[in-house]
Design a protein that fits this description.
The complex is a heterodimer of chains A (246) and B (245). Chain A is α/β, with parallel strands linked by helices and 246 residues long. Chain A has helices at residues 40-48, 72-78, 95-109, 117-130, 148-162, 178-192, 232-245, and strands spanning 2-11, 14-24, 29-33, 53-62, 65-66, 80-83, 90-94, 141-142, 166-170, 198-203, 216-221, 224-229. Chain A has a single domain (2-245), classed as Rossmann fold, CATH 3.40.50. In chain A, the strands form three sheets. A six-stranded mixed sheet of chain A has the order 6-9-10-3-11-12, with helices on both faces. Chain B has 245 residues and is of the alpha/beta class. Chain B has one domain. In chain B, helix 2 (194-202) packs across helix 3 (207-223) and helix 3 runs antiparallel to helix 4. The chains are: A alpha/beta (246), B alpha/beta (245). Chain A binds chain B through residues 48-51, 71-73, 75-77, 82, 84, 87-88, 90-93, 97-99, 101-103, 105-106, 109, 141, 158, 162, and chain B through 193-196, 198-207, 209-210, 213-214, 216-218, 220-221.
């Protein structure tokens, strides 16, 4: 589904990713772990197409298409979802309006009929219930006044509504209490654990992986993958630290 | 009727005007609006056509009267709307205005709110969205007369520049001759938040859709609570769509 080959990227001319390669197949969940500053979030933003993250080498192929040639909204319509480490507050824009427009923009790009107001609300209610987020919160401005945990659950509600084929989840576990962590973990499984979908989890800690069991774990350090293994690698990292393992 | 001379740039209220356009519209007839004692009324001023326009509204609020004025200054050429309001004791004046412009056009809203007597309240919310080489100006004077104690005046003025070539002028001004007054004003000129735009685009909105959504939110306060809120928002949305594409 996703093939990253020798990817290099800079922020303000500073090299962050230095030849990163990774292949993710449909039906797989991959976790990327690594110390602060390793380039984890840069990988997420580069895949999402954030301005200011400049690709200087390598390639990313998504379902056979050149992902890097697409604008951020085209990547979304192609089936990519980026879960933000720090979801952005947008005063004055309600979640419901934003998500309905976003879902319909994606559908339009794919040549599908738009969702009616009723269809959209039914879908939103269902996904909010899955993440145990009060539907009334989705009538409020995007992320404004949300706690850290509510923002992350709202990210997962968005993922549920937009129904991507591939999700990059950047530290979805940060800022979550134990209950919210479990709810988000179960939400990720319910939405994304499917034969035709895949997930790249970016995380510092093993704890999210107790709920979302990865098929592969990679260690990112110095802008490239330095070690890959199965789920046991995450436990090893938790016990011994990055320095010993990488 | 004596025809007043065309003003010049030295005249503060016309400092940023488009004089070539103004010359064709001069003299501007004064439109008098009187809200009688204790009554309350509203008006939507909508300028969304192709030709240049200049208007001058002179509003008198008698004691205890209230007036809710909303302005959409969003035509395709020069647009000037001047508002003078004189507030009697305990009157309430609300002005919510959005001016939306692009190309090389000049838009301006010039207000003078006179708190002539005690205990009147005025609220002004002005939002400008300017693209291309457009110039948008808000000159807003609040004058509180001697003895007009208990005055409560607020001005919130914000402008959003969509291109580095657009210009916003904003000058809220206070002239206070009474002691016991509350006058608040805030003024900001900014650009759309790049992180917010990326967030919206990462969910599938095209760049123009993302901008339009953020701008819709930006101007919403100007029309919030208006009798014709839906109509004003819809007309503003039409214009915004033209500015962001």
């Amino acid at each position: 589904m996703l093939t990253i080959e020798n990817l290099s990227a800079t922020i303000a001319d500073k090299p962050i990713l230095k030849g990163l390669s990774l292949t993710i197949n449909a039906g797989e969940i991959h976790a990327i772990m690594g110390p602060n500053g390793a380039g984890k979030s840069t990988l997420g933003y580069t895949l999402g197409g954030r301005p200011g993250y400049d690709v200087t080498g390598g390639s990313v192929s998504f379902d056979g298409h050149d992902l890097l040639a697409l604008e951020p909204h085209e990547r979304a319509a192609a089936g990519l979802f980026l879960g933000f480490q720090y979801p952005v507050e947008i005063p004055g824009v309600s979640f419901v309006q934003f998500l309905r427009e976003a879902a319909n923009a994606q559908r339009k790009a794919r040549g599908q009929e738009p969702l009616s107001g009723g269809e959209f609300l039914k879908l939103a209610r269902e996904k909010a219930a899955l993440l145990r987020l009060d539907m009334d919160m989705l009538k409020r401005p995007v992320n404004v006044g949300f706690s850290g945990g509510e923002k992350k659950r709202a990210e997962m509600v968005q993922m549920g509504i937009l129904d991507p084929r591939f999700a990059v989840l950047d530290e979805t576990d940060s800022g979550l209490d134990i209950d919210a962590l479990r709810i988000c973990g179960e939400g990720i499984n319910a939405i994304m654990r499917k034969p035709d979908k895949a997930v790249l989890l970016i995380t510092h800690y093993q704890r999210l992986l107790d709920y979302v069991k990865p098929d592969f774990v990679h260690v990112l350090a110095g802008g490239r993958i330095v070690r890959s293994g199965g789920p046991e690698l995450a436990l090893e990292l938790e016990e011994q630290g990055y320095e010993a393992v990488a | 009727m004596t025809v007043a001379e065309l003003p010049t740039r030295k005249d503060e209220a016309f400092r940023y005007s488009d004089f070539a356009a103004l010359a064709g519209l001069w003299p501007v007839a004064r439109e008098d609006i009187i809200v009688p004692d204790g009554q309350s009324t509203w008006l939507s001023v909508i300028e969304a056509d192709d030709g240049p326009v200049a208007r001058h509204l002179a509003i008198t609020l008698e004691p205890g009267a209230s007036f809710d004025l909303r302005i959409l200054n969003a035509g395709n050429a020069y647009g000037r709307i001047a508002v003078d309001a004189r507030l009697g004791a305990g009157a309430r004046f609300t002005l919510g205005a959005a001016q939306l412009g692009g190309g090389t056009q000049t838009l301006e809203i010039v207000t003078e709110v006179h708190h002539a007597e005690p205990d009147a309240v005025s609220r002004q919310v002005i939002r400008s969205v300017l693209a291309g080489q457009a110039t948008g100006t808000y000159l807003g004077k609040v004058a509180v007369a001697r003895g007009a104690n208990g005055t409560d005046a607020g001005q919130s003025v914000r402008a959003m520049l969509l291109d580095p070539t657009a210009t916003a002028n904003a000058r809220p001004e206070l002239e206070i001759y009474a002691d016991d007054v509350k006058c608040a004003h805030g003024c900001a000129v900014g650009e759309l938040d790049a992180t917010g735009l990326f967030y919206l685009e990462s969910r599938g909105l095209t760049p123009p859709e993302a901008k339009r959504l953020m701008l819709q939110a930006f101007i919403a306060e100007a029309f919030s609570g208006a009798v014709e809120e839906d109509r004003l928002q819809a007309l503003a949305l039409d214009r915004l769509e033209g500015l962001v594409c």
